[in-house]
Amino acid sequence: MTYKTSRRQFLATASASGLILGLPGLRGARAQSALEFPQLAGDSEIVVVTWGGSTNDRFQQYYLNDFTPDYGISAQFTSYPDVARLEVMNQIGNVEWDMVDFEGAQMNIASGKGLLRPIDYDLIHSVVPADQLATAFCREYGIGSVSFSTNIGWNSNLYPDGGPQSWVEFFDTERFPGRRGLYAQPRPSFEIALMAAGVPIADIYPMDMNEAFEALDAIRDKVDQWVERTSQWGVMLQNNEVDLAGASLSRLVDEKLANRGWDLNFKQSILEQSYWTIPANAPNGDDAMKVLAWLLRAPGQKAYAESTPIGMTNTTIYDDLTGPYAPFSPASPANTADTLFIDDVWWTEHQEEAQVRWLDWLSAS
Amino acid sequence: MTVASAFERDSVGASAPPRPAKRKLSPWERQSRNLTWSLLSLPLVAMAVLFVAPLLVLLYISFGGWASSFNLAGYERLAVPVYWRLLWFTLQMAVTVTFACAVLAYPIAYLIVCFKGRFAQLMALGLFVSLWMSFLARTFAWIVILQRNGIANSFMMNIGIIDEPLSLVYNTTGVYIGMIHIMLPFMIVTLVPTMSAIDDAYLRAGLSLGGRPFQVFRQVFFPLSMPGVVAGSILVFALSFGMYITPAILGGGRAPTIVLAVRDQISKMGDLQLAAATSMVLLAICLGILIFYNWIVGVDRILERDK
Known about the structure:
The complex is a heterodimer.
Chain A: H1 2-33, E1 45-49, H2 54-64, H3 68-71, E2 74-78, H4 83-91, E3 99-103, H5 104-112, H6 121-127, E4 138-139, E5 142-155, H7 167-170, E6 180-183, H8 186-196, H9 209-219, E7 225-227, H10 231-238, E8 244-248, H11 249-257, E9 262-277, H12 285-295, H13 298-307, E10 339-341, H14 344-363
Chain B: H1 2-10, H2 27-62, H3 73-76, H4 81-114, H5 118-132, H6 135-146, H7 151-158, H8 172-196, H9 200-208, H10 213-242, H11 245-250, H12 258-268, H13 272-297, H14 299-306
């Protein structure tokens, strides 16, 4: 008697739970057939390596929130993109990263060591037409993630008639008396020093390193602050530690929009492109490629570009950007008329010599 | 007893008089030895896996690693003046910071130990709170205080000590201020237990034998507290030697450390072999200095002198 009841109960429970367990599968199957891009469906959690901070929130919000529920691929984030670490992971046969936001030169170094997987342009273009993407940023082993701009900024209370219109003027201590700050890195300090020496943008590359150091010698005494990290700009600009800055665009824009006495322009601005790459032995490389194809679509790229002054690879977004950051989008056609694009190939070839000589030059002061 | 043990110590030498022959261990001794080894095995394995193995891997990488056959390229490429200049600066900074921390921490630790009760608790609390906060946050806090329009400069200009703001940060001055502040708690937390372990009876004995208070401090308390100073200095030296965020930010590019070069080697140049070779050289130098230091004012010698 009790046996019977319990068996009946058991069967009932089993079928009920079967129904419950089966439901998501059914739902998934139904959703999949109605997906706009069935080729992007997957089921893993990819590991995305970024430079941290708000980047991860933006990635989640603008690229994944409307992707993961339908397509089944989610992401977790970690820091920082580092070629040496990827190389070690590769050597010991345990690559943990699926998608890495490398600087251009890092990408070239990594692909030169065979650490990256070629981009599957058939898949990418099946989701985003080729003519929507900036061709210069569609490379064999990476597609443009974001581009960062370094701009001339100035204390608008101190120079109410306007700031420097070129790097030559930036270092004109008679017209613009005050304290100057630059990044404590060879890139883009080489480029800035050469432009300050009067070299036109078109003639910057290929750089001659000796000339670059001569140009740096010429501006050395005029630079009061060498800034190690982007996060330092905020505190430096807000407290007028410097009056003129060759600074991160996003930090300058933040100060300007908050009316804290800073202004900027795009004259001889310097744009550096970073790239999404996928490691050669990434555990979920296929799914990472699908996420990459999805995030290059205009809606996500547009929302991202409206949230911060940063350049995107999908060029169709620049026609109708809105919001406070829209006028400062660094890769938009309007703002790149007088822009130097960092040549990552030159930097890949000269990175080592440049780093060592730069430290030598800086520490000798 | 002491004579006997001293004799035993001496007899370890080359042609010593015959030591008591290896006698058979009693069951109890054997058991206690076995127990010691079995208790030690876990920490020893943990040390080997967590500390020794990674170092050996790094050593292997510095000679070429998996990527290529054995070679010395990593070490050869270190032979450029810039690395030695950065190393020299780093050493200089670490030594200065260690010395300053020892001098500053000693009276603070002494106060914490002497004033028992609420006051000591508050001081200890302040100390730990500053240890809990991140290096980066405290580094930026120093910028707010020391910068041209910062609290320190405004205060001094308002009361008329200076007319022009002083350059207190973004130079080596700023690095020293920040580094000493960050390292000070490490020195104090090492000193306090050593000082509190000193038996009051020694001090009372010194006083009752007619020593003046300062004399008792100098001849009794200070020597007994030296192991703490030595341990604290080793800790602070090793930490300062490897610190790069604080010098990088407070130094304004004017205080590049050797660790900054290692960072560039790894993240910018992606050159693991060079970075591993640099780290090995740093490790060797750091160990050499610490062994030398220990030999001069080492814990062993102090303890031995007391016997």
